[in-house]
Amino acid sequence: MSAYTLLAPAKINLYLEIIGDRPDGFHELAMIMQSVTLADRLALRPNGIQDFRLHCAHPQVPQDESNLAIKAAHLMATEFPETYANLGGVDIELEKNIPIAAGLAGGSGNAAAVLVGIDLIWQLGLTQPELQTLGAKLGSDVPFSLVGGTAIATGRGEKIASLPAYDQLWVVLAKYESLAVSTPWAYQTYRQTFGNTYARDRQDIIARAQQVHAGSLVTALNRHDSQRIGQLLHNDLEKVVLKEYDLVQQLRQHMQRAGGLGTMMSGSGPTVFTLCKSLVEAKQLTQQVQTTLDNPDLKLWVTQFSRQGIHLA
Ligand code: C5P
After folding, report:
1. What is the 140 CA–ligand 1 centroid distance (Å)?
2. Whether residue 51 lies in the annotated active site
3. What is the pTM of this model?
4. Distance (Å) from CA 25 to ligand 1 centroid
5. Among the atoms of ligand 1, which is closest to the Cα of residue 191?
6. DSSP code string of the chain
7. Which of 47, 128, 191, 267 is most buried, most CB within 10 Å of its CB?
């Protein structure tokens, strides 16, 4: 049995619309997701024992059952008990490069990489749809993390329709290191505040989810129209997160004023991103925001659109 090192890219939401409630307590969403080159690195090797062990040097990453990567490993053991009994578990070394609780699907990407890594080590030959079905059991963003690139995500976020890949845009990510936003809190607060606007009728929900396929942002992405892509960024969760977190609101304003094609919060935040048409522009913008805000807790990353989901390093 071989060992594998995988890269798990972060994602940003170019578009996030909350359509309504679901019977399972989640929300019906229409999103456009985009992978970026900023990625966690996971080295997986067979350990010959009946256990899965995770090690990560990052002090805030849990190394126990509460980590989605370990949950993914246990899911594989449950789904393939004989293989697990015969071949044993794996040791996972996680190099955490994506900020945590940031709205960048770092945890989901780690889980996706563990599914792919164990599939390779155990030589199961699972198909992409099979991996995605397993991924959906772990979290709404895991199926997208597997596929990556540019994609429409509907349902809970687990129904993925890939769009033609486009990697010619740069992204500046900005996040206060000590600030984390709880995703369940963001969605619950949204429901409390805007629940009266939710689509209730099933046909209505389906129609609204379909609209995104024919929407202006998809057209702009297909045409590689970077100006329009920047203008059409949208995230419903900004309405609750920016209201609660003044720092994020201010950061967003500074980022927007600094230039670029468009600025938006990713997922449930608190990461804010600005799209840029070149590496030079992205670096200048980073410098400007750093100088203006001058806060040691503020971290910025320059990254690029990526065509890839989980892939071998
Ligand atoms: O699926 P995941 O575990 O990433 O979701 C985290 C939380 O975000 C859920 O517990 C739920 O509160 C909220 N959520 C939602 N509707 C979705 C996805 C997430 O309400 N489609």
Report:
1. 7
2. no
3. 0.97
4. 9
5. 20
6. ---EEEEEEEEEEEEEEEEEE-TTSSEEEEEEEEEEEEEEEEEEEE-SSS--EEEE--TTS--STTSHHHHHHHHHHHHSHHHHHHH--EEEEEE--SPSSSSS-HHHHHHHHHHHHHHHHTT----HHHHHHHHHHH-TTHHHHHH-SEEEEEETTTEEEEE------EEEEEEETT----HHHHHHHHHHHHGGGS--SHHHHHHHHHHGGGSHHHHHHHTT-HHHHHHT-EETTHHHHHHH-HHHHHHHHHHHHH-SSEEEE-TTSS-EEEEESSHHHHHHHHHHHHHHH--TTEEEEEEEB-S-SSEE-
7. 267
